[in-house]
Amino acid sequence: MSTGTGAGTDTDTGTGDRGTGPAGARLARRWTTWVPVAAVLVMAAGWGRDLPGPVVAVAGLCLIGSVLSAVHHAEVVAHRVGEPFGSLVLAVAVTVIEVGLIVMLMADGGDKASTYARDTVFAAVMITTNGIVGLSLLVATLRRRVAVFNAEGSGGALATVITLAAMTLVLPSFTTGRPGPEFTGTQLAFAAVASLCLYGIFVAVQTVRHRDYFLPVARDGVGTGDDEHAPSPTRRETWWSLGLLVLALVAVVGNAKLVSPAIEDGVESAGLPKAVVGVVIALMVLLPETLAAARAARRDRVQTSLNLAYGSAIASIGLTVPAIALASVWLSGPLVLGLGPLHLALLTLTAAVSALTVVPGRATLLQGGVHLVLFAAFVFLSFSP
């Protein structure tokens, strides 16, 4: 197992594949700089207005461009700070912005938005633990037949995900303090504090106490990336990319907010369940992590992919639930967090399959396929419950 933490040896991403020479690198820097700026301008121009179809389409294009830009700048930052800090940067940044989006949707939606937080958080858990993990294992095993990762780090992260999900999404369906799948105020406060504590412990273990558990695993002493010897970005380039990463993520969520009314209208006109809105929002917001995880898996850095997947799930619950609990003080309407029987069954199946995947520290194409089928089942049943 690799244990070094140098900028050129333990990062999942770098500058080696962002172009074919200086011209390619300059082109990447140009478009990844102006796309987030343009996307933020579109967001500011359309904020709070009823937008016609063409403007919504432009916002959608800005959303896609911002996602790709966010992945680029996250990779630059990750290459500079090393693993597992690089994975943590993108996971926390996206989740913080995701919280803002959920709060905005709940503030605008009133009583009909009472399940937005639950639907989005549960969708994030299913996307990360099945979609991102399955895609990463598929990409890695298609190239090298067997994906290798650290069972200690991934197992601990998975245990944290399962505990957080059970405590915040399962228990409300069984508590009796309030009718329906809701926490009482005291119960919600306890769940929020416990979630924050678990998240803090996980970050401390991942980045300090047992950092080596979350580093990419080398095969027989051989490096695990095409770009491991790429030159590290300068401090100035890193800070510049960090600022543009935040700007790109703001643009992602802001433009997602612009297109969300069209999504809600489309869902309503098609007669689909309201939970579909949460699924679509989570898919858009988690797209940067998905692309970054797939690219890491392509370089045989599966541990980095799992760090992104499970770290995003932990951040999504551990930061979102406390923020929503705090926001519920001034938001009107109920806060429904408990899952229904269908989603409880999917979560239970996901927990069991994920445990069987991470315990050996090795996975094949079969495990990737199983997770992707579970993800497909979640998406299909969200549209057709």
What's this, in brief?
The chain has helices at 22-46, 53-81, 85-109, 116-144, 151-170, 185-209, 235-269, 275-285, 287-298, 302-327, 341-358, 365-383; strands at 147-148, 362-363.
Task: Please describe what this structure looks like.
This protein is mainly α and 385 residues long. It has a single domain (22-383), classed as Up-down Bundle (A middle domain of Talin 1), CATH 1.20.1420.30. The protein is 71% helix and 1% strand. It has 12 helices and 2 strands. It has helices at residues 22-46, 53-81, 85-109, 116-144, 151-170, 185-209, 235-269, 275-285, 287-298, 302-327, 341-358, 365-383, and strands at residues 147-148, 362-363. A two-stranded antiparallel ribbon has the order 1-2. Helix 3 packs parallel to helix 7 (235-269), helix 4 (116-144) packs antiparallel against helix 5 and helix 7 runs antiparallel to helix 8. The longest helix has 35 residues, at 235-269. It is globular, with a radius of gyration of 20 Å. It starts with 21 loop residues before the first helix and ends with a helix. Mean pLDDT is 81; it is low at 1-21 and 221-227.
